[in-house]
Design goal:
Strands 6-7-8-3-9-10 form a six-stranded mixed sheet, with helices on both faces. Strands 2-1-4-5 form a four-stranded antiparallel sheet, with helices on one face. Helices cover about 65% and strands about 10% of the residues.
Length: about 600
């Protein structure tokens, strides 16, 4: 229930709408009660079953005053204008009462709409903001499909299963309190009997719905697996077809889909049991009330027959709220599973924290220094990725990181913008630990070009200006020209306004990479990080991209990660990484003369 209260805490912003909803619900219930209580005596008076009232009742705040005054007015109308006129007035009164009842019911729902949809919007915003804030290490542990399921289906389930209960929460308690209060006016003994029966009914409904939360969690987790399989399939279609793995993936998806189907079937059966079960129990309670009330009328003469009939009519109005409550209870149990999965993300720890007294940094002036840096992706794990790294990079210099895959090259690059934090030692820019700087300012120092060109399903212009505000078209074109991209962009269907597709799939590999370089050029950062920026390109594309990179690197401090050693021969310093350590360091000529691992790597690539 704590998760349910956490979700409901989003209602704080919508107090006015909640109060309006409760007021309109109260008026709806009052007009509903009036329509029940007043119709029977009106008809009895009209058809002569009770004597007319010619004496004006004395004003009081008791509910009976309204009934007595209405009888008096109707008696006067019948006396002066006849029974037919009285019937017309009754019909008009009924129409007016039901008009106001339904008008207030609409206004109650209208007031609830911005509340319900606003809370769901706020949950989505908080979820998305948290996904942006979480460190990369979080995503290495989670399935992307499961995160998408939490962002979409779980939020939808909260909307359907919990937020839709708000109407019941704000309306039905008022319904039950007012109708029970009206029933107390007729018979305290009979009302207490009804109340006891409702408690017993609620106990049975609670026992049946207790397992829904657990099943709901299993269902949402299985849906996350399902979306993960679909996501992996769409991203890997080329390999699936190339390795004739269609049958394997079809079987995998079918198995996951079948498990989700079985769980959903059980949840549906248990949830849909609520309505018939509640109705059956309500009829049983009504039969018991008829028996108990009949004894009071026939044997003990403790309540008049017409009063007992009115009592039963009012009691019948308690059945819909009871059914709504039981349905709400089942929905909440299933919705709690989704809310728990949402709160797991909202409560996830953000490892990369900014110091409360973090300093701004506007420019890079002197050096980047690694001092005894150690790093492990999992502090509990014994596997250390970097061990005692000491490295000094002066402003304007080009430093290349080389070595076998898994040696720690990309990890060093990821530590600079604090995608991860060091687990030992420190990284310093201009003599201060980077953890002392504002995170936004720190990351503004870097321009990053990776092996995989990360682009978005948007226009060329928006991809180049990504993260850079207030860029003019002239600035974008200049950046594209430096990146050797302007010419091919001009040849696109809509030029800079062309949508490039998911991950830029409408462009070639070289074109995609030149767009990412144009994005880095436009940002104009003092420090560049180039992570295998040309390794996946053909010779012609590599030449164009390398030329663009050379223009980009001019006058900047550059950290280059490269497998193709020919591209980094002119680096000021080459760092050879091996098993998380710096094995060799120096310039190209010095390392070749050393006859060590670097020379072996160069000679291997020469063939």
């Amino acid at each position: 229930m704590q998760q349910f209260l956490r979700i409901l805490s989003y209602l704080r912003k919508y107090k006015l709408q909640a109060i309006s909803n409760m007021v309109f619900n109260l008026l709806t219930i009052l007009f509903s009660l009036v329509s029940i209580v007043m119709l029977m005596p009106f008809l009895q008076l009209l058809f002569g079953k009770i004597p007319p009232v010619y004496e004006r009742p004395v004003f009081s705040l008791h509910p009976n005053y309204i009934v007595d005054f209405s009888k008096y007015k109707l008696s006067m109308i019948i006396q002066q204008e006849g029974t037919e006129a009285g019937l017309i007035y009754i019909c008009i009164a009924v129409a007016i009462i039901f008009f106001f009842k339904n008008m207030f019911r609409f206004l109650a729902l209208y007031a609830l709409s911005p509340l319900r949809n606003g809370v769901v919007r706020d949950i989505r915003n908080d979820l998305y903001n948290k996904l942006l804030a979480l460190p990369l290490s979080f995503y290495s542990r989670e399935k992307k499909g499961d995160l998408i399921a939490r962002m979409t289906d779980d939020v939808k389930e909260v909307e359907v299963s919990i937020m839709s209960v708000l109407e019941v929460t704000f309306r039905e308690p008022l319904n039950i309190i007012i109708f029970l209060g009206a029933m107390l006016m007729f018979s305290v003994q009979l009302t207490l009997f009804v109340f006891a029966m409702l408690l017993v009914t609620g106990f049975f409904i609670g026992r049946v719905g207790r397992t829904l939360k657990k099943q709901g969690t299993e269902g949402q987790e299985q849906l996350g697996f399902l979306i993960s399989v679909v996501d992996e399939t769409l991203n890997g279609l080329r390999i699936i077809h190339g390795f004739n793995a269609e049958l394997f993936k079809r079987t995998q998806f079918s198995d996951v889909n079948q498990k989700h189907y079985l769980i959903s079937k059980r949840i549906f059966a248990r949830r849909e049991l609520s309505s018939p079960l509640t109705e059956f129990l309500a009829i049983c309670v009504m039969c018991l009330v008829l028996w108990f009330g009949g004894k009071l009328v026939l044997q003990h003469q403790q309540i008049a027959a017409e009063a007992f009939i009115t009592f039963m009519v009012i009691f019948s109005q308690l059945i819909p709220p009871a059914k709504n409550f039981s349905a709400a209870f089942y929905n909440i149990q299933k919705g709690l599973a989704s809310s728990q999965r949402i709160l797991e993300i909202l409560d996830a720890k953000v490892d990369i924290q900014e110091s409360p007294d973090a300093m701004p940094i506007k420019e890079f002036n002197h050096t980047i220094e690694f001092r005894d840096v150690q790093f492990a992706y999992n502090r509990i794990d014994d596997k250390v990725i970097l061990k005692n790294i000491n490295l000094k990079i002066e402003k304007g210099k080009m430093v290349a990181l080389v070595g076998q895959s898994g040696a720690g090259k990309t990890t060093i690059a990821d530590l600079l913008p604090r995608f991860y934090d060091v687990t030992g030692g420190g990284i310093f820019i201009d003599g201060k630990d980077i953890r002392e700087y504002k995170l936004f300012d720190l990351r503004r120092l870097y321009g990053i070009v990776t092996q995989e060109a990360i682009l978005f399903n948007d226009t060329v212009y928006n991809n180049i200006t990504f993260g850079v505000g207030n860029a003019t078209m002239e600035d974008v074109k200049k950046a594209a020209e430096i990146a050797n991209a302007h010419e091919f962009i001009q040849g696109l269907e809509n030029g800079y306004n062309t949508i490039i597709g998911d991950k830029g799939n409408k462009l070639s590999g070289g074109e995609r990479q030149r767009l990412t370089i144009a994005r880095a050029v436009l940002k104009n950062p003092p420090i560049l990080i180039l992570d295998e920026a040309t390794s996946s390109l053909d010779s012609n594309s590599e030449k164009l991209v390398q030329d663009a990179l050379n223009k980009l690197m001019k006058g900047r401090t550059t950290i280059v990660i490269a497998h193709r050693l020919a591209t980094i021969q002119y680096a000021d310093e080459i760092i050879l990484m091996q098993d998380g350590n710096i094995a060799e360091r120096g310039n190209h000529i010095g390392l070749m003369g050393h006859n060590g691992q670097y020379r072996k790597l160069v000679e291997l690539q020469a063939f």
